[in-house]
Amino acid sequence: MQIKTKSGHVLELPSSEEDAQITAAALTDPDNQPLTDEELKQFRRIRGRPQGSGKKEQVTLRLDTDILEQFRATGNGWQTRINDALRDWVKQR
To answer: How much is the pTM?
Structure first.
């Protein structure tokens, strides 16, 4: 059986026999038992951004363009690196 995703990809689903074989093989692995329906219920999707730590404050800060470009060029996490650089500066004072 095939299904088409929203993005247009076609996925081939296993037949009932193949699905039964896969399930039987999974059940024989003592280190990786499939989750029960009750265990699956504990996983809930939470919409939106993750909760912050509550230890940070959002501010508006004007930085020189060249400094900002240098931090952004280092990839994801550049804002954290700016925070770390400021923390190091505070410790040195």
So the answer is: 0.46
Give Rg (Cα) of the chain.
25
Which residues make Cβ contacts (< 8 Å) with residue 17, sequence separation at least 6? none
d(CA 9, CA 54): 41
* Chain centroid offset of residue 72 CA: 21
Domain boundaries, the chain: 57-93
- What DSSP string runs through 10-33? EEEPPPHHHHHHHHHHHHT-TTSP
At 3, which helix (H) or strand (E)?
strand 2-4
Structure confidence by residue, pLDDT tens digits, 52-89 = 788 888 899 999 999 999 999 999 999 999 999 999 99
Give residue 46's pLDDT. Answer: 79
Report the alpha-carbon distance of residue 29 to residue 80 in Å, rounded.
42
